[in-house]
Write a structure and sequence with these properties.
The protein is an alpha/beta fold and about 250 residues long. It contains eight helices and seven strands; from the N terminus they run βαβαβαβαβαβααβα. Helix 3 crosses helix 6, helix 5 packs parallel to helix 7 and helix 5 packs across helix 8. The two termini are about 30 Å apart.
């Protein structure tokens, strides 16, 4: 296994230095995909790249959205020969001390998805909690499974080859809808799921790029398309369940 860290960023210059400092102890290469950030964040990234040999920054010319940045990151990771990517957000809400736990899960089952299940404190906005519950329900319906516990958590470990194969074969969104859409398609393709509880902290002064109107509409579109495709996938899903029961005997 040859893992790397993957961080998409757009205008989180105030936090990215601390995030990268917290990851230095693990000795993993880190690909930071700058999605067309302004000068302040670009300067912070230049400083971090000069300070840390493990950091490699790729600058996209224009802002394309979270999904566009992640797709660039996964393709770049594949080109660099990495087998797995451990994805984190740039705003500091994820607990870097959990990196070894995610890596251990990937080592235990390299072909699986290792998905973070957020453990929130009082800092989380109630609107985010309600929105997550709805997304969980939609993904459970689309996959006919409870295995994906939280489709929106940005702290996750994925095998790169099936991700890039999927990106080459299936159109996917370029914004916040990409995270759950990717998981739905990978689950449909038979990848196993491991979940890992991880602490998530929201900074009340932090910068969020989630657009309550457009991103909710994009998410609704993903879930509507997934549910529309469900009847054709139902026999395959039932066959997968029978196979799992048979192997357990």
């Amino acid at each position: 296994m040859k893992p790397c860290l993957l961080i998409p960023i757009f205008d989180h210059g105030a936090a990215i230095g601390r995030v990268l400092d917290s990851l230095a102890r693990f000795g993993l290469p880190c690909l930071v995909i700058d999605d067309g950030s302004a000068a302040e964040t670009r300067a912070a990234l230049d400083a971090a790249e000069a300070r840390h040999a493990f950091v490699e920054v790729h600058h996209r010319k224009e802002n394309g959205g979270r999904g566009a940045a992640l797709k660039t990151g996964y393709r770049r990771a594949a080109q660099r020969g990495f087998s797995h990517a451990l994805q984190l957000d740039a705003d500091g809400q994820h607990d870097a001390s959990d990196v070894p736990r995610f890596l251990a899960c990937l080592e235990r089952d390299p072909d699986s998805l290792v998905l973070g299940t957020p453990v929130f404190d009082a800092s989380v906005p109630r609107s985010r909690l309600y929105g997550r519950q709805l997304s969980r329900l939609m993904v459970w319906l689309a996959t006919l499974s409870f295995e994906v516990d939280d489709p929106l958590c940005g702290f996750r470990g994925l095998p790169i080859a099936p991700v890039v194969e999927l990106l080459d074969a299936v159109p996917t969104g370029d914004h916040m809808e990409f995270d759950p859409e990717l998981l739905i398609h990978l689950f449909w393709r038979g990848l196993r799921v491991q979940t890992l509880a991880t602490r998530v902290v929201y900074d009340p002064k932090g910068l969020s790029h989630f657009d309550p109107l457009w991103d909710d509409l994009r998410l609704a579109g993903v879930y509507a398309r997934a549910l529309a495709a469900l009847p054709g996938r139902l026999p395959r899903r039932l066959g997968r369940r029978r196979g799992q029961r048979g192997s357990a005997r």
